Each structure stands twice: as structure tokens, then as C-alpha cells.
Amino acid sequence: MKPVEASCNLCGKNSFKVREDDETPFRVLECLNCGLVFVHPFPDIDKLAVHYGEDYYRDWIYQQKNTRIRMWKGRLNKLEKRRQRGDLLDVGCGDGAFLKLAGERGWEISGTEHSSYAANYVSEALGIPIFCGEVFAAGYPDNSFDVVTMWHVLEHVTDPGRYLREIHRILKPSGLLLVAVPNVNDYIMQAAYRLVKKRPLKLFSKDDREIHLYHFSDETLKNYLVKTGFECLKISPDYGITEYSKKMINFIAAAFYYTTGFRIFNALEVYATRI
Ligand SMILES: [Zn+2]
After folding, report:
1. 136 CA to centre of ligand 1 in angstroms
2. What does each C-alpha distance from 159 to 10, 24, 100, 135 come to in angstroms?
3. 22, 137, 264, 268: most buried by Cβ count inside 10 Å?
4. What is the pTM of this model?
5. pLDDT digits over 184-231, tens only?
6. How far is the CA of 104 from the centre of ligand 1 (A)?
7. Distance between CA 27 and CA 101 in Å, rounded?
8. Residues with a beta carbon under 5 angstroms from ion ligand 1
9. 8 Å CB contact between 171 and 228
10. Residues 159-170: pLDDT tens digits?
């Protein structure tokens, strides 16, 4: 293939294989050294922030509200089994439902959000002050938070390494980081999609509701965390899907994981601690 003017965000090398090449000028590349999968070149990031406007959030805030609250409760219950309540930052807090719930349960809450629509909604409708922008622009002091959460955010940012280094700086020593991302090795979902739609599930499409710039596996995500100063405590299935049929497929994939150890479920949930 033609040389790519890029270096891998995880390992810095610049040899890639092409995973997808049908959305000119965008291609999905896989690093031959570390296996990181990403889109190249990136779509216009400012346009993406606008893309996550009212239309994107409407269903979550209204139609799917109760289902999503159940999802957030499940995630928070799990977190509270590991950590006592303290200062919590939700990076990319979206419609703020997780922060609201955490606040009601006694956490000291902070949030950042790149979409100005969502940041305004959270600040005005929920009364939670939010920093609108990228986490490294918020200027939080060193050692500010006991827990930082990133629910399906890292795959949307242009520089995951920079995000993780910043979170390491603002977490307290031994602070907990919780990251959930889609799993690039979601083979059971891919097989189900191919069976129903008669075509492969794509990693990138300009017209997708969700534009993912990076695609992580358990291995690449763990390597990112280790490289940025974290110890990975646990990698397990994330249960963020609310759509019934996909949820069932994910349960099958999770059951497969718990009997075989293969992480081919839909999304990864990682607990890591700052070293
Ligand atoms: Zn690499």
C-alpha cells in the first residue's frame, strides 16, 4: 500500500495494514507492531462535536431514559463495590445521567463534555456545572479525584494517550480509572450481524451515528494503560447495550468469556488504578 503519513498513537511505529478502504479518503488501519486499529485521516473533529447535538441525544434523554438509568445504576453499583464515595470525574459525561445518579448517592461530582449541546443540557437542565471541552483543557489540579470514569469516550478522541496521561495526573495516588470502550474483537456480534444483514459489520462509516476514531482490543487497551502509568485490575464485559436483540447477543458472548476466557464480547470494561 501507499506509505501512510502517520504514526501509531500507542507504540509510535508507522507500519500498518489496511482493514477497510471503502470510505475515501478515510481508511481503517491496523498497526503491524501493536495491533491498534484507527481511522486515517481523522474526520473534521469540530464537525464531529456538532454532530453530537440535540438529534444525537434526544432518544437517550427522553425515550430511552428509564432503560439507561437502569444501565447507569448497574455500572455505579459495580463501582461502589470497589470504592468508597469520594471525588468523581466523568470524562465525556454526555447527557449527565451517570453524574446525576452519582451525585444523588453522595459522590462529589465533576464532568467534562466535548459537545456544547450536552454540556449546556447538563448545566442548565440538571444543574451540574460541566467543563465544555477536552479534559486536558479543564486545568484540574494534580491529585484531584478518587475516581475517573470514561464511558465509551476513548474511542472518540484523537489522542487517547494524551487523555490517559492527563487522567493519571489528576487522579489521586491509587485512584481508580474506569474505562469502557467497544471491543474490536466482538466476533459474536460480527457473526450475528453478517447472518442477519448479509454483509460484514464495518468499523467506520461517514454516515454512522457513532464515529469511532479508534478500535481497541483488550490487549491494546491494557497496553495503553500500562504505558501511561496504570495497573490494570480487571477487564470484563461492559453491559452498556440497551437494545434487546444486541443485549442478548452480548450475554451469550459474556457467557462464552466466563467459560473460555476469550474476550470476544461487545464492549470492554476496564478497572485500573494509578500506580
Ligand atoms: Zn502501534
Report:
1. 23
2. 9, 22, 28, 11
3. 268
4. 0.91
5. 999 988 898 889 999 988 999 887 778 899 999 999 999 999 999 999
6. 41
7. 39
8. 8, 10-11, 31, 33-34, 36
9. no
10. 999 999 999 999
